[in-house]
Design goal:
It is built from 16 helices and nine strands. The protein is an alpha/beta fold and about 400 residues long. The chain folds into two domains: about 50 residues, no CATH class; about 270 residues, Nucleoside phosphorylase/phosphoribosyltransferase catalytic domain (Pyrimidine Nucleoside Phosphorylase, Chain A, domain 2). The strands form two sheets. Strands 5-4-3-6-7-8-9 form a seven-stranded mixed β-sheet, sandwiched between helices. The chain has a two-stranded antiparallel sheet with strand order 1-2. α4 packs across α12. The longest helix is centred in the C-terminal third of the chain and has 16 residues. The radius of gyration is 20 Å and the shape is globular. The relative contact order is 0.15.
Length: about 400
């Protein structure tokens, strides 16, 4: 991802204090700007023309767009220019033909040019789970992020509020139930990271361009490429991204999208086959994809996590709950305070261990799990939760 940058937009300064508990040296606090063109000035490729001449003929015969065509398309969408019928048809045609990394990279860059990214002094692991949430199993990411922070690995999560199409529970709703502030300006989110080790960025605050599309997305009834790109916004300008996928081919596409992107310059991407498509490791067998860049050399590998190897014996049904937000919050508090040492504690330690490993603070997932258990046993995770509630 060592791509040339065409103009730079620096992260917005944080207001108030200079307290930084989890500070690490940052490689950069700026993001590349995707375009210098006036967003109200368009070229020749309307969405209707793209549908007619390029991408609208069906899943077998449609052509891919060039980067320039995809860039113009998403700029028109963010400007509210297309007819609503044409917009819906364009989104559906992209779903049928499946976007390639060049198209997604163009979409991501135009989105990031409109994102208010505010980097904390810390360098957190960016957790971008599917924004439209989960409906059956507990959300473990809040607990895992808090525990990882207690172990010394800063973590950032971000989501919206009832995002289409599922409009189910996400990070925001678990944190709300825990009494943690979520509807924060990006600068306050960055301060939260530095003061507690865990931070939450709220999509309507940092990504208003995507938020403006909420009604149109809701009317679609199916996911669109917006569901993919919004998880790649990286509002804390982190160097490490942790995400989820349903199939390994999609993980490879996300990695290649980051490589195509001029707005991102990541060091590491770890994605896994999470429960309900979320960033929660599955019990039993989970496929993991890992991309890393060192000294300009990129490597990609995939491997498996098998929970029995960590002496964990539970199934996905054991992680099902009645009320995802409320029950996830109750379980989060019980685990991080050390009140539970059953399969829920195992599941949280596993997911925290992956985050610690992703952040480079453990040389293996097993070592990360050990650090997570220590953070719980010594009260460091509970202290993070208390700090979050007091923030």
């Amino acid at each position: 991802m060592s791509l040339g940058r065409h103009g730079v937009v620096c992260s917005v300064p944080r207001g108030g204090g200079d307290r930084a508990v989890f500070a690490r040296p940052r490689a950069t606090t700026c993001m590349a700007k995707a375009t210098e063109t006036d967003p109200e000035t368009f070229g020749e490729w309307s969405l209707k023309r793209l549908m007619t001449e390029v991408c609208g003929s069906g899943p077998k015969s449609a052509d891919d767009m060039t980067r320039a065509q995809a860039t113009e398309a998403i700029r028109r969408i963010f400007a509210g220019e297309p007819d609503q019928t044409t917009l819906g048809a364009f989104w559906l045609s992209n779903r049928w033909k499946r976007n390639n990394p060049e198209e997604l990279g163009a979409y991501v860059d135009e989105m990031c040019a409109r994102v208010e990214s505010v980097a904390p002094d810390a360098d957190p692991v960016d957790c971008g789970a599917n924004y439209d949430g989960k409906g059956d199993t507990a959300i473990l990411g809040a607990a895992a992020g808090i525990v990882a922070a207690g172990a010394g690995t800063p973590v950032v999560a971000h989501s919206g509020d009832r995002v289409p199409t599922q409009k189910q529970d996400s990070y925001k709703h678990v944190l709300d139930e825990l009494g943690v502030r979520t509807e924060l300006a990006p600068g306050a989110s960055a301060e939260m990271v530095d003061e507690t080790g865990f931070g939450f960025y709220y999509q309507p605050a940092f990504n208003p361009a995507v938020q403006e599309l909420w009604d149109r997305r809701d009317m679609m009834g199916v996911r669109t490429f917006v569901n993919t790109i919004e998880t790649l916004a990286n509002p804390a300008d982190a160097d490490v991204h942790l995400g989820s996928f349903y199939h390994l081919a999609f993980a490879k596409k996300v990695v290649e999208t980051f490589e195509e992107s001029r707005a991102h310059d990541l060091d590491r991407v770890i994605m896994f086959q999470g429960m309900e498509g979320y960033d929660d490791i599955r019990p039993g067998y989970t496929k993991v994809a890992e991309w890393e860049q060192t000294d300009g050399e990129a490597s990609f590998t995939d491997y498996e996590i098998e929970t029995p190897e960590y002496d964990m014996a539970f199934e996905e049904e054991d992680l099902e709950v009645d009320d995802v937000a409320a029950d996830s919050a109750t379980l989060t508090e019980a685990v991080v305070t050390g009140e539970r040492d059953d399969h829920w504690a195992d599941a949280v330690a596993l997911n925290a261990g992956v985050r610690i490993y992703a952040g480079g603070d453990a040389d293996s997932i097993a070592a990360g799990i050990d650090q997570a258990r220590t953070a719980i046993a010594e009260g460091d995770a509970e202290a993070v939760l208390a700090q979050l509630r007091a923030f």
